[in-house]
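Predict the holo structure. Ligand: flavin-adenine dinucleotide.
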Amino acid sequence: MGKCGAMIWTRAHIGCGNREERCWQSFYARHSRLPDPGSFRHIAVVGGGPKGLYALERAVSALKDGSGKCCIHWFNSDNFFACGPNFRTTQPEFLLINFCIGHIRCHTRALPVSVIPSFPDLVEWIAAKTTSEERPAAEDFASRALVGTYLRDYLYCLFDHLPEHIEICMVAREITAMEPLPGGRIAFPPLPGYVYRSVLLCTGHCYDNSTSFPDEITEKPGFLYFRSPYPVALLDAIPAGDAVAVLGMGLSFTDVALALTEGRGGRFHGRDTLTYSPSGSEPLLYPFSRSNLPMIPRMGIYHKTYRLFYLSQEWADRLKKKKPLDFTSDILPVLQKEICFAYYSTLLGSREENAVSEYMDKLPGAQRFGWKQLLFPAAQWQKEYSSYGAFIIDYMAHTIAEAEKGECHSPLMAAAAVWRIATPLVAQLYEFCGFTGESHREFLKNWYGPLSRVSFGPPVVNMKKVLALIRSGTIRLPGEPPAQLRVDQEQVMLSVPDGLQTVTALIDARIARAALEKGNNRLYANLNDKGLVTPLVNDTFRVGAITLDRNGRVITASGSVLQVYAYGTPTEGTVLDNDSLSREKHNFGALWARTLKENCYEKT
Ligand SMILES: Cc1cc2nc3c(=O)[nH]c(=O)nc-3n(C[C@H](O)[C@H](O)[C@H](O)COP(=O)(O)OP(=O)(O)OC[C@H]3O[C@@H](n4cnc5c(N)ncnc54)[C@H](O)[C@@H]3O)c2cc1C
């Protein structure tokens, strides 16, 4: 049981351990030998995470009635196929998914006929496998390692249903370049002889943040610089007692904090409020970020959710006709109105618009809750707190308590839920440069971060742990933003509330975004240099992503047709919010699969 009511399912609950990993290794060994090119038709999927897995199922289902042998080469940087880096089966069990298990299903009936007749959703799967007396509920949470095990089970199931004429070959190899061939076909230069009739890129978060810091910091002798905290086992290199700067205060910061404390033998005690007993092996953590604000946590939200009042499909359909839109003038006012309505309708227990408006009108302006208090709560911290740290501790305790009430009872959580629920509607307006270039830039720079901070936070139990770590002194809070790193010949220092703190390590705990022109990914930089992809430019705004057509196919610099498609994170920028386990959202993998039969069998 988690420390705040919801069950947290781990691999131990389904009796899963080293034996399962050994089975995987032998399965991988059996299916990772590249057959001679021979008479196969070849297809490539680059990226072995969940999106690659989903796309594979679509590809096999689309090709199931073809005649003639077809081999799908599935490339990944390592052999963690199906789970990818984020749901690695070998990671510590305290690293949790960020929403409840009811939302996770890797097989969907919403798609056309599949070679897989049926496959359970995560709740059903745990129920069938668990050795525990407890029954899983949709609102429970799970370790990411358990979700990885579930995804891998789906891969086994896909292999069980492979038609005879289709082979899947898993290749643990990073693809760094492509060569265009006549007819839109592709070769990967290090693999001579293979001609791919179609390629899907589902490379996930493969970008690099390291250009954000000067070499004086990242290459300073003796200084530990982590361009990403994953896999968290890398952080074992940090000595106990050292002072560590952590850039980013979001979901990855929570992972870092737990890896360096619970992962080093520290223990949390209690139920409502947690306390922390250190093991003595922890370093001291100094987190900082652009806003220096923690996220708002979430309980498992499944059945009981806030219902939007003003934002609706009709609203989105009306706005679609006006594209390109300006986020601040066309969308934000209605979003703000909805946030206020969510807050006060929940407070009053009434969705009667007049009653809610009358109540709000009677409140003095300064007392009225609005989007500014939700998104930028630190604006007036000096009025009530002796220090910024005292404000953060109070803010965390308050948001934890509100999250535990749930969004149908807590006005704050109802307001925070608005963006989460409205994102699919706004995504329809955003996609394919639906905002003007200037508005696109402003939305990504100023709004997307604060909105995500309040709506897509970690499970409550993890935020309670972070708060316990702050109270124990293991995490030292930043002052009012901005905090800055400085470097001189001897040391790297972080500005903290009472001066400068020398740090011996820096962990970049931000998820890097695509920055094509900065070349922050080797494969995409190579494709860009060769004109095989083109940078996405909205008016004058250079988005950093690649340009795609409506089917997710890359647009080349010369306009020539290349059978290369993208799915998942490489489509961010063109679409909004594709970064989840969802099979339904922006399913470019299914669109790609529809093109395969023609590319494989009808064209020679
Ligand atoms: C730490 C973390 C936790 C998350 N937790 C959740 C969660 O709880 N729930 C949720 O819905 N979402 C979560 N997400 C979002 C997550 O990105 C998606 O759920 C999911 O992992 C996306 O799957 P994907 O296949 O697109 O990408 P990934 O899972 O990132 O897989 C991409 C794979 O492609 C490989 N690759 C990249 N480039 C190449 C190349 N050139 N050649 C060969 N291989 C390559 C990578 O090594 C990687 O294995 C989390 C993300 C992170 C970073």
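Residues 46-52, 75-77, 84-86, 97-99, 174-175, 202-206, 252, 511, 523, 568-569, 579-581 surround flavin-adenine dinucleotide (CB under 6 Å). The first helix runs from residue 18 to 30.
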